[in-house]
Amino acid sequence: MKLLFSILICCLSLSINVAYANDAVLQQANESRQSDIQVQGDGQVIRILPDDIDGSRHQRFILRLDSNQTLLIAHNIDLAPRIAALAVGDTVAFFGEYEWNSQGGVLHWTHHDPNGRHADGWLKHQGRTYQ
In sequence order, what DSSP letters do the residues of 77-122 get, joined into one string? Predict the structure, then answer.
């Protein structure tokens, strides 16, 4: 029983550190121009962009992170539901794949993978998960 409790505490400690570390991970990825990094975090919506309708449709908006970095979210709405009531000032949590660009980066794979080959991503807004 003591061993099980110790393992549980250790796992909880690791998950807390990962959650807080992601702003720093994103900042480091941006500064070193890294891509293909699975990240989790949250930010405030500062701009809502028109949907990208070339190929798979993507809902697009920009988040500002606590580090002041901006991050474009490209959420595939052919595979996951659109965030319908999204507004500037809202907080959105995310789990997806980061790709570097000169404007702060893009987060995609914020949906399930229908082929089961990629980690399932998600967005969370006002208590609802979009996957």
Answer: TTTS---TT--TT-EEEEEEEEE--TTS-EEE--S--TTS-S---E
